[in-house]
Please model this.
Amino acid sequence: TVLQLVDAITEGSAKDVVISFLDGMRLEEMADYLAVTSPAEIDPVEFLALARRERRFDLSPYSFLNSLGVDNTLEGYLFPGTYMVSYDANAQYLIEEMLRTFDRQVTPAMRQAYGTQNLSLHEAVILASIVERETPVDEERPRIASVYTNRVRESMLLQADPTVQYAVGYQDASQNWWKVPLSLADLELNHPYNTYVIEGLPPGPIANPGLASLQAVAEPEQTDYLFFVLDCESDPPGRHVFSRTFE
Model:
């Protein structure tokens, strides 16, 4: 009845909590957000331990994680966005919901497109996480994806600054997980995620990409670009200049 509907809606709103994760957050940033907001019964320490796979967590319901290495965390697969959970939801419930959302959002067509480019799902998520951290401009993402797929095809170093930022980690001075600017010493850091040093893709994603970046890797622009640099005069800011050559 109408009265029952009114009761359900009003009581339901009092029992639900809204949690919002931004595209491109790394696991630690998600945990930091949970620590500040303290939503439901979600313990940020437990969330991070489960996401890093430091605690037992059954991944068998998520077939897209079957090929995930034992050393890989859930970085990249905790789909960002807004979630409404009940007041008694815990960290495991939230992670399960984020994984289910990833499975829904990354469609069979997108996964087929990754395969057409000789990319596994894991490799595609790695690339999407780099694309996510490179630009705030959605329409640029397919072009940036093309640069990195071209570099992979040419067996070039990716030389992606966000991978170095991921390797360097938290900065006490700025209280930020993404160091800006990077130093020359940072670019020479001997680390498996530093794509200025290692060949090919890093061993895992560097953040949790949104749908636009995942779609960009599925459908990159067809270009011969191998380089891009920030356009300091762009309006709005954040856009890049693309080129075939370093010069």
